[in-house]
Structures are given as structure tokens and as C-alpha cells.
TrEMBL record:
Source organism of this protein record: Nicotiana tabacum
Cross-referenced InterPro entries: PPR_rpt, TPR-like_helical_dom_sf
PPR repeat intervals: 127-161, 163-197, 198-232, 233-267, 268-302, 303-337, 338-372, 373-407, 443-477, 511-545, 581-615, 617-651, 652-686, 687-721, 722-756, 757-791, 792-826, 827-861, 862-896, 897-931, 932-966, 967-1001
SUPFAM superfamilies in UniProt: HCP-like, TPR-like
The keyword Repeat appears for this protein: yes
Record's signal peptide: none
Protein name as annotated: Uncharacterized protein LOC107799753
Amino acid sequence: MTRIPLLRYSSNAISRSASAFTIRDYSSSRTNVENVKCLDDALSLFRRMVRTQPLPSVFSFSKLLKTMVNMKHYSSVLSLFRQMLKSNIPISDSILNIAINNYCLMHYSDCGFSVLAIYLKKGIPFNVVTFSTLLRGLFAESKIKDAVNLFKKLVRENICEPDEVMYSIVMNGLSKMGHTQKTFDLLRVMEQGSTKPNTYIYNIVIDALCKDRMIDDAISLFEEMKQKGIPPDVIAYSSLIDGLCKFGLWEKVNTLFFEMVNLNIYPDVRTFNILTDGLCKEGKVEDAEEVMRHMNGKGVEPNVVTYNVIIDGYCLRGQMDRARSLFDSMIDNSIKPNIISYNILINGYCKKKKLDEAMHLFHEISRNGLKFSIVTYNTIFRGLFEVGRTDIVQKFFADMLSMGLIPDLCTNRILLRGYFQNELVEKAMSLFHELEKKREDIDIELYTVIIDGLCKNGQLDKAHAIFEKLSASAIAIRYYSSSHSNTENVKCVDDALTLFRRMVSTQPLPSVFSFSKLLKTMVNMKHYSSVVSLFRQMLKSGIPINGFILSIAINNYCLMHRSDCGFSVLALYLKKGIPFNVVTFSTLLRGLFAESKIKDAVNLFKKLVREDICEPNEYMYSTVMNGLSKRGHTQKTFDLLRVMEQGNTKPNAFIYNIVIDALCKDRMLDAAISLFEEMKQKGIPPCVVTYNSLIDGYCKLGQWEEVRTLFFEMVNLNIYPDVCTFNMVTAGLCKEGKIEDAEEVVRLMNGKGVEPDVVTYTVIIDGYCLRGQMDKARRLFDSMIDKSIKPTIISYNILINGYCKKKKLDEAMHLFHDISRNGLKPCIVTYNTILQCLFEVGRTDIVQKFFADMLSMGLTPDLCTNRILLRGYFQNGLVEKAMLLFHELERNGGDIDIMFYNVVINGLCKNGKLDKAHAIFEKLSLIGLLPNATTYNTMINGFCHEGLLGEAKDILRKMEDNGCLPDNVTYNVIMQGFLKFGKISEMNTFLKEMSGRDFSFDASTGELLINVSAKDPSLLNMIPQFHSGS
């Protein structure tokens, strides 16, 4: 092997200084964000930024986030924003505004409002940009009432002074939703305030008036604007020209057009497009083409909209040759057609029944990198039916579904009308019944198509029956209105959504109780996203909301791990005058703990108590104490118990159980017993849960005498052990290898009338598997099934793992296939276990198939999966496959840790690729990862194996320089290298070090020493330390 040159004298210093230089160079540069071209670039840059010390400026972080927002990677922006909050990276108002804007662009303005809490928490003042962004978000979600109320509140309570941008957002939002009069009124309000309207504001109002066909008012405002010295621009003229074109007032259009030119306001492409569109709609397509030629003469390039408008004009007149000629001309002029261009032309050909030409264009769409729309398919369906090509309708329909396009009402009407038109009555009725069965949103027009189709196909009786059913369904809805029992019939999400649709269409509306009952049912069914959707619909539709519904909404968000959105619901309490209660905040606290936001939860609890917002009850205390204890904050849990004892709400048995359990899990048994005795002295009777915690604690410490004492004490107090008690005892015994004793406990359970559950069996099966007694483990597994106790995925995983460790792949695979047959789903642990076994027995041929199956199940590979794959490929000599996976993971920016790199370095070393292993090892410091003892030992072993003992010693010194202490493995690996290559004299120095650190030879080193000394007995005399030690 070629010797690898190492910079012996200063490799470590160079590595460190290179890393420092890279970081300094990066840190001082603001141009890195400009190099971000894709999501991977952005994520890589963020990871480097958070590892840099000192951290880059807040400006750099905000610039990166803004770049990602512009690239529309909204969910990734949220992920990085949360990481910044979690890592306590400094946050500015700019970053918070970006986060709010990001939420609003995702149509989650409610989550945007939750960011306001961070402003308050960090003492950052609100500004006009913050609220302007939220207002834009509300309008984008059509929450007009909320937006108007927020704007009024800002002005009325003097929270912030609206500027031109804020006014323009509100007026734009109102005008686009058809509220022209309100837009006009707001202009008049603005004129009275300190912020005066500018050209942009007037343009919004003039455009709204024109679109609402209030052309006289628009011209009047236009004249008023000029009188006030506010110069109109091309947008104002374009809006007026558009309004006049729609009325066909061409003389006035002509006047305005020349007026703007005389004022040196030159028409832009939009102005010309408005003109061409108006002319085409009146059938004056040649005049429109003349306008386009005029555009070219004035240096205004026609765009795809210009061409589409004129192509559509020719299609409407049936002049397909001229339409196609213009379409080709557009392409020749390097203007790329869009899907609308294709839809217009395809529709024109279909109307002329020129299906071949339509199909040719249809197939061109994907070749030109465009995506079909539902309109494209609807047009093709209509064309196919028109020429009687019903034989390929189904194929096109299947293609449409495979494209992820969902049939709309128009699609269903076309299909039904087409089937009837081609006398395929059975197909039409089959589709109709399918739509009814799926509870699709069927309107009266669809029923009209059905009735008409049946009548035209001579099936008048069926048509009449459907006609009669229409009124019957209305009666059914009226009957529903008086009944509250329908919620009990909800068995799935479709039932719930159908019931909700009927409820909102009923007059008078059902009670608030009925709505809350439906939402609660859906939460219990875990249809969280559907609950959010219905809650938003209720708010949008003005359906009455009470405190109970708001609590359900908060709970639903918290169950989705979106407590930030839960906090946004608090604004609705204030808005609707509903008082907060202890349930509201207890739910939010539980949500924060579920997301491991411990600090936020503790701060909220302190704020509630300090500011007397609500008096904590036992439930709120238990939520906080449970949250703290489950995250390992035992002392804080105990301290809160002492605080609670001083207050009005005294701790009960449930509270004491939380603290005792926390102490036991933290192995603080003496403190737990002390609290247990204190609890009894205060007259608070312990229960089976209390005893279970203590028994579990003693089992883990193997203190069986104490377990026995507690067990009999609880029985004497008539507190009977439950299945949980017995499971703790069996688990403790199995962990100590006392499986027969554990089985004896199960027999005792049966004798006491306590049925063992799946946990009991799984624990003992695991015990047998750990001892390699697979026959006994399998018998117990089968016995569990015989007793009608259904195994869980954990039961299967344990048994599969047992078989895999014994390399019994057939038995493991048989169980694997059993999983889905028994209605369970394999988890990532199942696949990891099977993948590891496949590598162990050399079945690499089917690894890829299993991996593909895993992905198709929606399972995401974790760190363990990737390590197993890499280790397996290396173990089986598939170095190329391993490195392909490694580079792919690096490129994707996965969560790669030092253990992962250890696998790669070790695999390369064992496969004779020492140079590649060393290159990766040297790269670690540059990417911010610190090698651990295993990393260094692997490299030392690799060099020793190749006889490069000098390089091995260099790595050892580097290890010590970097503060990573060599261990027993390190010295044994080096000793084996010296022995293997006969470097006995050099061994003595390391033997002294090894002896001085109280390290000793392991079995492998000892065996090698014996083998070498058998060939050369004088060797032992050359190792005085070993000789004297023996």
C-alpha cells in the first residue's frame, strides 16, 4: 500500500487554523446568501452559521430567511425559525416580521398572530410592518371581517399609526372582495387623517369602481385626483380604459388613450392587453391584431397574455388556422405559451371536432415542461364525447387522477352528459351512484343533467324517481335540524364532514352545543386537520362560537403539536368577550410540554400566578408537574409541590404520585420513601399507582426484599396489585435474567384474578430472546395469541430481533409477513432489524427491495437505518454502494452525527480504503464535528493494520492534543500493531504509558502476544513490563 504522507510537525495546528480561517472568512462575508440557489444551499448555510463562533449578525440570519421566503420554501423557513428560538439565537423585529409573513403566505395568519407573543416576551415593539403583514394575510384568507376589526382596533386604540402601505393593503383587500363602497369610504377617512392618499391609493379606488361598473364615479374621482395635484399614472388610465372597453365606449377610450400619450404617460403592455381584450370580446379581432402591431411600433413587446387574448378571439370565431398561425408566431417570437394558451387552442379544435389536432397539442404540453390543469382534461373529455370516442375516456380519466388532479363539478357534469349523449346510460348511472355514495358536493345542475339524460334515453320513470327524491332530501335536512342525536352516528371523517355541511345549510342553525359535540367527536377520532378546517369555516361563516369550542380548538392545535396556533386562539376570547378559564391555560401548558417547550411553559405558569390571570387548580398543577417530571426536572417538580402546599390548592394523592414517581425514576428512592411516609402522615391515602412507582424503583435497583415488603403492605391495606404492578415485577426479574421467576409471577397473577396483558407477555418473551431461548419465546408468543391477547408491533419486533440475532432469517421473515396479515403496520424498528439481519446472513440482493418497501409505507429512514445500511454494505464489501449512500446523505443535509462518520471511516479501513478514510477523518473538524475516542481508535487501527505505525502514533498524539483521552482500546490496538509487525523495541515506551494509566492487555492482544512469543520465545524477555507482571 502507498504510504500516506502526513504533516507530522503541525497537522493538528494546520487543521485547526484552516477551520478557523474558513469560519472567519465565512463569518465576515455577507455575500454567502447570494450564493444560495436552492433549499439545500440554504440549509447547509444555516447549519454553518449556527456552528460559527461568534454567531453571524442578526441581519445575516434575516437575509437568509428572506431569501428562503422568496424561494417559497415556507415550511423550511418555519423549521429554521423554530430552531433559532430553541437555540436562543438573537431575534430581531425583522426576523419576526419574516416569520409572520411566512405564516401568512402559507395562509396560516392565525399562527402569524401567535408570533406577537414573542414580540412581548423579548420586549420588541410592534411596528406598522408587523400589522400590515397580518392584515395582508387575513385578506388573503378572505377573513374580511377580522381584517377590518383589526384595522379599526389599531386606529381606535392608537396601537400604531397606519401608513400608506397599511391603507393600501386594507383598501386592496376590500376592493378585491367586492367591497367597493367600503374602499371608497376608507379613502374619505384617510383624507381626514395625517396620512394623505397618494396616486397608488387613488388607483386602488378607481380600479375598484371600474370593476364594479361604476364608471362615472371612477371618472369623477379621477378628475378630483388631478384637481388635488396628484398626478395620475399609467395604472389609473389603464383601469379607466378597461372600464370603458367593457361598456364598448370606444370614443372615450380613444380620448383617454391620446390624453395619456400627450401627458407623456406611455401605455404599457397591460394597457394594450386591455384594449385587445375589449376588441376581441366584441369580435373585432383584426382591430386587436392592429393594436398588437402598434405595440411593436411603439417598442412595447406583446406578452403571452396579448397573444392568448387574440388567439381566443379567433377561436371564438372558429378561425382555427389563424389562431394556430398566431400561436406558432408567438413561439417564433420566443414567447413561451402557458397552459392557458394550450387550453384555448385545444378548446377551439374540440369545438370544431378536430380531435387529432387537439390531441397533438395535448401531448405537446408535457413535452414543453407544462402541467395539465383540470380545464385541459375537461376540454378533452368534452371533445372525446363530441366525436363519440368513449373508448378512451376512461384512460384519460385515469391519467388525470394519476396527475393528482381532482375531478370538479364541471368534470362530473361533462362525464355524465357525455355518457348519456352516447347512450351509455349504465355508465352514467354508475358514476352518479358513486358520487352520491361518496357524498360528493352535488348541485342541482348535476341532477338536471341526470334527469335530462334519463329522459332523452327513454327512462322517464327513473328520471321522475330522482326528481321526487330531490324534495325528499330537503325534508331529510329539515328533519335533521331538530335532532341532536346525529353526532352519535359519526363513524368516520366522511360522516363528520357530511353532517357539518348539513348543519351549516340548516335554518335555523343547530345549537352551539351540537357544533362543539361534533368537533369534540372529530378530535377524539384524531382528525385534527379536519377540525382546524371546520373551525375556520365556522369563524368565516359567522357561526356562533362559545368558550367550549375555543377550548376544543386550542386542544386540537396542541394535539397537532402546534401550541403556537393554540395561543392565537386567545385573541378570539378577547374579541368575542369570552373570559379565559383554567382549562384554557391548562391545555396550552400541556401543549407546550408536549413540544418540550419547558421554559415557555414554566414562564406561562409563573405569569398566570404572578399576574393573577387565573387561579391554578389541581389539574393545572398536575399538568405542570407531570410536564417537568417527564423531562427529568425532578427537583423543580419537588419544589413546586412545596409551593403548592403553601397555597390555597392543596396537593392530593395524584399530585404526590407524580412527585414520588419522578423521584423513583431518578433513582432517589430514599427521598421517594420519605415523601411516601409524609403523605400518609398527612392523611392522604396512597393508591396502587403510588405503590407501583416505589416497586418499580426497587425492582430497577434489584432490592427484592423491599419489593416484597411493599407488595404485602399494599395487599394488607386492601390495595390490590393491578396488571401494571405485576408487569413491573416481571420486567425487573427478566432484566436480571430471572425469567422462570417472572413466569411464576404470571401464574400468581392468574391465581389472583389479574389477567396478564400484552406487556406482561412481551416482557417475558424479551427475556427469553435475550437468553437466546427462541423456542420458549415462540411458545409464549403463540400462547398469548391462543389466549386472545393480540400482539403489538413491539411483540413482533422483539421476536424478530431474537431470530435475527440467531441468524434464523426464515423464521424472522415469516413473522414479518404475519404483521400486516394481523392488521398491524411494521415500524422503522422492524425494518431496521430485518435490514441488519439481511446483511448479517449476506442477503444483500433483497436489501434494496426491503428498503423500497419501507419508503412506500411512508417510513422515513432514521440515523439507525442509515448506520445499518452503511455498516452492512461495508461488511459485505459493497464499498461503492456504501459511499453512494454516504454522499447522498451528506448532500441532503441529513442529521449526521459522529457515530455515522465512525461507521464510514471504519468501513473504509476494513475494506482497504485507508486513504479515503483518512480524508474523511481530516474533514471532520472543518464541518464542525469533533472526533470521539471511537473515531481515533478506528483510524489508529486502520494505520496499524497496514503497518503504518508512525501515522498511528501521530493520530494518538493528535487525539491527546484535542482533549480526547486514549482508552484501553487505543493502547491495545497500537500494541497489536507493534506485535503484528515485530516492532518490539518501540513497544516499550507505550507499555510504560499503558501501565501508568492502569490499562491492561485485552484477550486479542494477549492471544497475539502468545502466538508471536511461541515463534520467538525471547520476545517475552524483551518486554520487561509484561515479564515482571506475569
